Structure formats: C-alpha cells, structure tokens
Amino acid sequence: MTKMPLGKGLNAGLRAAMEADDKVLIMGEDVGKLGGVFRITDGLQKDFGESRVIDAPLAESGIVGTAVGLAYRGYRPVLEIQFDGFVYPAYDQIVSQVAKLHFRSQGRVKMPIVIRIPFGGGIGAVEHHSESPEGQFALTAGLKVVSCSNANDAYWMIQQAIASDDPVVFMEPKRRYWDQGEVDTTSEPMPLHASSVVREGADATVIAYGPMVKTCLESADAAAEEGTSLEVIDLRTLSPLDLDPVFESVRRTGRAIVVHEAAQTLGLGAEISARITEKCFYSLEAPVIRVTGYDLPYPPSRVEEEYLPGLDRVLEAVDRSLAF
Amino acid sequence: MPDAYVADDPAGAFPLVQLLTPEGERVPHADFAYDGDDDSIRGLYRDLVLSRRIDFEAHALQRHGELGLWAPALGQEAAQIGSGRALRPQDFAFPTYREHGVALCRGVDPALLLGLFRGVELGGWDPAEQGFALYSIVIGAQTLHATGYAMGLTLDGEVGRNDPERDAAVIAYFGDGATSQGDVNEAFDWAAVFNAPVVFFCQNNQYAISASTDRNTRGPIAQRAGGFGFSGIRVDGNDVLACHAVTTAAMEKARNGEGPSLIEAYTYRMGAHTTSDDPSRYRDSAEVETWKLKDPIERVKRYLLLQGTPQSFFDDLDTEADELGKHLRETCKSLPDPDLAALFDHVYVDGSPELMEQKAQYVAYRDSLEPEGSES
C-alpha cells in the first residue's frame, strides 16, 4: 500500500499502462513538457519520449480525429481533453466516429481510445472549466463511460480503460485530484464496469460517482451522528451501468437518493431513478430523489457552492425520503 | 485552356496540370509526365468505364427501388481512377461516400458499395484488408482519420526508408464543400505540424449539393496548403493521366518522409448530388453541356483510337462492363436484410450486460410475434 493523491494515482496508472504496451500513446494539449495543466502526465514524456507522449496542436477535434486514424493503425491513444467544457469541438469525432466505427464495420474495426476529461466544479474556475458532460457520452451507444472517485480506483481504472478494446470516456473528478488515498498496486482490482458499495448502511441508499462520492461519504458520517445509517454506492461505471448492487441495496433500505453535479433534467439520475422504479417498485418506501446541479449553465464560481450538491442538500434529501 | 477551368483562379496562380486534352491529345508538362505505356492507359480506360458502369447500374437500381439512395460519381471518374491507381497495396485511402472509382482501384467488390445505400449495412468491407476505410458521410471527418493514420505510419517507421515496396502513405479524399469544415483545416494543420505522409485529394466538383464553390471558398482551393506550410497543386480532374502523375508524385513525396501535399482536382459533378437531388433548381443545363465536352472517359477513348487500339478491346470491355452490371444487379437484390438482434453484438467489443438485456427483451418480443405452428 502506498499513499498518494488521486492525480498521482492516475499518473502511476498511465505509466504502468505505457510500460505494459508500447502501442499506448498519450496525446493532448500541454501533456508533454508541462505534464498537463493538472500534471497528470507529469514526467511521462521525459521517460517515454515525444513520440509516445505527444503535445497536440490546440484543436480538440483534431486530437480525437487523429486518434481514430491511429487506432485504425493499431495504436491505443489515451487523449487528454484539458477541461470538460472544451470537449465539444470534438463532439462529432467522439459521437459519430469513435463511438460508431466498430458498429459500422460490423466488428471489423476497433477503437481502443481513452478520452480523459477532468470534470466537475468546486475549484473556483472560470467559465467552461467546471462542467459535467458525462451524461451526453453515457447516452451514446458505442461509448463506455467511467468515473473514479479515489486514488486506488484512479490507478487501476485508467489501466483497465486503456486495456479495453472499446472506447472509454474517462471522467476525472478534478476537485479530488489532490485527495490522498491508499493505493494497492499488487492486489487484483475489481472489474472496470462494476459499482461498489463504499459504505454499508440500513436506512437509505445514496448513489453517486466521481467527485460526489466523497460528499456522500461525508454526508453519511454526519447522518450517523444523528442516528441515520446511509449506504453509499460509488457507481464507478456510467455506461454500461452496473445497478445490481443498487437494486440489492434499495430492496433492503427502501429509499434511494441519487447525487450528481450535472444538471437534473435528463441527467444520469433520471435513468437510475427510472431503473430503480422498474426493478424495486414493491420495495420502495419513498420516491427516488435526485440531488443534482440545477438546470442552469454552470454559474459564476462565487455561487458554485450553492449550485453544487453538498452535504446539507444530501442530508435534506435523506430527511425528505425518510419522512415520506 | 477552356474558360471553365480557370474561373476559380483568375490570377492564374495555380495553372492546371494537364497531360491529355479533351480532344485526346497528349501534351507535355514541365514537371509531370504519365509514367505508363499505352497498355497502362488501356488499363486506366478499363477502370474508367467500369466505374461509370457501377454508377449507371446503381442509379438504375435506385430508380427501381432497390436502393434507398445513390451518390453518383458521374464525371469524376478520372480524378478517382487517376489517383486510385497511384496507390500501392501498402497505402491507405480514406474516402467520402462518393469514391466508387477509388473503391474499385482498392479491390473492393463494387457490389459491397451498395449495402450502405440499400440500407442493409453501414460498412461492407474490411478496411484493413482493402487499405480503404469505410465511407465517411459526416463531411471532412475522415481527413483527420487519414492524418492520424499517417502519423501512425511515421511512428511505425513505414516512411522514408527509400524502399518503394514497403514505404507507405495515406490519401484523404474530400470535396470542395468540405474545405469549409473545421476538421479539414485541422487536418491540414496537424499534417503539416507532424510532417505526416498524407496526400489531401480534393475533388472540386464545383458543388456542395446546391452551393457552388464560391459559397465555400474564395480563391483556389490549392492555395490553402501554402497557409498551412505545405504545397498545393491544381490538376485537370477530368484528365486521368494528369491525376495519376500528380498523385504519384505527391504519394512518393509522402512515402519518402517529405510530408503532406494538397491536390485540387478540378472537375465537375455531372450528375445530381444524390438521387434525391434536383440540380435543375440551381444550375443551368448549358453549364452541364460545356462540361460534357470535357468528359474524362471520351478523351481517353479518342487517344486510344488515335493510337490504333483495335475495336475488339472496346468490345471486350463492353462485355466485361455488362457482366459487372449483371453482378451488381444480382448481388444487390440478394443482399439480405440485417438481423436486428445480431446488431446488438457489434456495439462493443467487450459487450455490455445491459445491452444484452435489451437484446434479450427484443428477441423475446420478436419471438412472441411469430405465429405459432405456422405452416409455410
């Protein structure tokens, strides 16, 4: 076990993946000498060279579009989109090309591309640097979408995503990059597309992913002080969803609260809520409640703490569920 | 040079490379020469005739309701065959949805081109096996794929070994309309920055559906390359010898590790954009008539007749084209509808449990509709 911040877990995972397979390339803006604006690729260009850690021209569609060609050629490109709000210029390449080429070619062409996106708010950033676009990729057939919430998952999930023959959109909780955690580099990790019960509880099930997992764990600590026992599930995989642990939990607790930073309408919470209702209808003691960002463009950062789900909003939702 | 050829380049900054006039006369050029003999030219003529036949048959199949749509390449055969025959087996081509002649050059069974337009599949061939990517319908997207593939060739050391049998390059096809797309301009930039072995082959057929070239660009398309740091050239896109010579040189340069080039093949879309289009709403038939005089196939036939090619060559080719037509008609009508259940299996390599659950639901629903004990 080694203690390291989540961002360092990603860095170590990237390094391990590059050592394991020389077809793995890193490409993105400022990923080379600078090591990325968050330093996630720190030191990799120095050790693996400029042909494997490629500083890209400033063009997101170009980053993803050329990666398609590299994947045709047998490479496994790992792309860094510098911030969530900058992914949209690449949207066509991701949704119409990366996601569909395997299907269009009847399985002949593989697109083992990882698109890393630091996402979410809470760092006081300027516009376009705090968004949560994961839902737009999770609803796209052909893409897989995952999000890590801790250093150990960061280390393993990035390696598993790179090893996947399917394209993976890898959502990184940027405000948790500096959170320390234990990383076990020797034990067999859990599968990439599996949800995890990160705290057991009996009174209500709280479902989250990425940056909100920590918020929900803190909420569970606070609730415990008041005598309420919350079970917290880290989804980890957003497409495909792995909801069996959620169903199992909700059948026990009878109550579910889904938490994400992304806006409410048509967010992942809507889909998860629908599925819980389909699968756990007779177990539910209350409607599934969503605690999310509001249906606004991301607000100016001075009010982002009011916009983002926090401990108090999660607990307020728990109270509503219990009181129903 | 006929006026229609210079309308987009009044300053004459990018004179067209031409080696065979519409009258069938070979003309010399200071920098380019066709490197084959008359037998090779007969080979090109055969490809031209067969590719036009693919168009003819596919168009008829669409009119008979066998295809939902067809995108004719009528008039662009020389640009496609001239460039397509300049490729080597180890090269890779990234087409639009109109590169039927290039597909023929890459050895793709022309019948496989019909599946997309019949609505029975979205691809049809193995890109790696043919060195020919799937048709790309989002305009310009494939130019970035081509550039990335070319970057991969460089990383793999497949470039610049002075080994013509092994050194490889990429060709990216696109049209005049695509030059307005961000992806195409990004591809130019990336290719220049990474010195990628890619040839950008623009068929300026003068129309993006209804929008004439001046709605998409001002100034010759070939001029674009200079702004990105590589060279562009304009070629008579209806002259198969010139297209072959210019593409051969550009591919050679790319294979040698000397970076990208842009070729603007100045041609004319003689047919509609697709079978759903009505060009009479946006262009004069007189314009089409002037381009008929520059037909890419007729000029080669004139040349070959002047060289004393026997009539039997043309007769045999007619027979071969008839056989190709029969093959296309028969194969098209026998292409099976896809099995929707099977499509669930090709969304992901590693599968998805929730998608398999939907598949099971679909299959169960479909099977519930089968009449029980039905007799055929």
Features:
heterodimer; A: 324 residues; alpha/beta; Rossmann fold; seven-stranded mixed sheet; globular; B: 376 residues; 2 domains; five-stranded parallel sheet; two-stranded antiparallel sheet; 14 helices
Spans of at least 5 consecutive residues with low confidence of chain B: none
Rounded Rg of chain A:
19 Å
Shape designation of chain A: globular
- Beta-strand portion of chain B reads 5-15%
Q: Which protein chains make the most extensive interface, counting residues with beta carbons within 8 Å of the other chain's beta carbons?
A: A-B, 45 and 44 residues
Tell me how many strands of chain A there are. Answer: 14
N-to-C CA distance of chain B:
67 Å
Q: Can you give a write-up of this model?
A:
The complex is a heterodimer of chains A (324) and B (376). Chain A has 2 domains: 2-183, Thiamin diphosphate (ThDP)-binding fold, Pyr/PP domains (Rossmann fold); 196-323, Rossmann fold. Chain A is built from 12 helices and 14 strands. Chain A has helices spanning 6-20, 44-48, 60-72, 91-98, 101-104, 134-138, 151-163, 212-225, 244-253, 268-279, 304-307, 311-323, and strands at 2-5, 24-28, 53-55, 76-80, 114-119, 144-147, 168-173, 180-183, 196-199, 204-208, 230-234, 237-239, 256-263, 289-293. In chain A, the strands form 3 sheets. Chain A has a 7-stranded mixed sheet, sandwiched between helices. In chain A, strand 6 (144-147), helix 7 and strand 7 form a beta-alpha-beta unit. In chain A, helix 8 (212-225) packs across helix 12 (311-323). Chain B is of the alpha/beta class and 376 residues long. Chain B folds into 2 domains: 3-334, Thiamin diphosphate (ThDP)-binding fold, Pyr/PP domains (Rossmann fold, 3-Layer(aba) Sandwich), CATH 3.40.50; 340-369, no CATH class. Chain B has 14 helices and 7 strands. The interface between A and B is large, with 45 and 44 residues.
